[in-house]
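For concreteness, we quote verbatim a single protein encoded this way:
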Amino acid sequence: MTKTSVAWLGICLLTTWCAATSDAVPPNVLLIVSDDQGYNDLGVLGNGIITPNLDRLAKEGTRLTNFYVAWPACTPSRAALLTGRYPQRNGIYDMIRNEAPDYGHKYTHEEYQVSFERIGGMDLRETLLPEVLGTAGYKSGIFGKWDLGTLKRYLPTSRGFDDFYGFVNTGVDYYTHERYGVPSMYRNLTPTTKDKGTYCTELFEREALRFLDEHAGTAPFFLYLPFNAPHGSSALDPKIRSSVQAPEKYKEMYPPVENEFRVRDRYRYAAPATVVTQEARTRDYRAAVTCMDESIGKIIQSIESKGLLDNTIVVFFSDNGGGGGSDNAPLHGKKGDTWEGGIRVPCLVRWPAGNVPAGGVNDAFLTSLEIVPSLASVSGAELSSQNKLDGFDWWPTLRDGQPSPRTEMFWKRKDSIGARVDNWKWVVVKGQSKGLFNLDTDIGETNDLSQQHPKILDRLKKRYHAWLSEMDDAEPRGPFRDF
């Protein structure tokens, strides 16, 4: 072969390699977040709940057993997963909500306009995940629960999303789409009551499928599906308020319940009140999860039919621990707690093209704070240098089994605390220390070792207070900080 031929061959190979590199297709992203789903509430775990599509994700992807969210209830958890920053750093470290509705109050329009649920929102200096992915050309849609502010400047399409249909506060009646009498559904920046009467899980499915038909294959997409299932209904009627609404079709998939209702002498309002029995609530909760699972299956099928599923990163987890009707076994506690049952949640990750193991079970210490940097690292997106992130790229841990860089995590809800350093956990409930636990041997937090290991407890307390000082010294964010 002549020198000219060798040179020409080299040019051809270089050209081919450059073309292949430049034509590399960034992964699509489907991020599914359920609302108040229990740690054990996956069919694959064998507790009797029917979730064939989530089970498929577990079979074709990896199940994370040691995965945490950043707060034990709705709003701060969602703010953290979309910013990659602790709630105490991004400013949403408590609920954006009104208290009066929990006592049966129906707001007038004028009352609601000046309520905190209406005026509070995510600080505008925060950079959210769709804005990050937008730097790499992604089209972003959100269909479901927003919960980070209801004014136009706070709504999803003002914060990087291209398309939004859903409700804007912490919970709704599944059929009326009202939160304690206040209509809460929006399309982009505009309130709407057009779909009143339709079960909202079906609406979020409908909108997600429309988004995929419009954008999948034309540009990389970020589809965020924060369902409100299986959150309890936010209705005024105690018969509805005391359970989770679900279509009869899905209730009938579970064993019949002998007694649907009972009378309670004490209730949050309207006592005595007729409420559902615990047996009925558990059935209703499971039916709502099964309905959501069916919608997830249709969305996955749509992506698959377009030939895009294997290069779509699918991530599923619950926004916090399970509430009424859920199964958090073997964890102690529930939604709202800094016990494991309030903050450790089910999580599934599927991405064959990214070499995430199929049928894998990964017990590495990981959290929702890892979502933003991990998606940025594989999408070609640019992270803002303005806001310090509290997460890291998790792909080496998921793909290659490398140890997780995370060694500690802290939670604070009013005067309740959770502090995990390595495999040790310190828990404070309403200002009272509840003990020190070794999660390696005691995931259920049953054996307090604070007396046997005072030095370890002291180390955790020091790390917690150092973290708290860092959060207090961070550039302040609204809506709660005084600045």
Remarks:
- The CA atoms of residues 161 and 442 lie 42 Å apart.
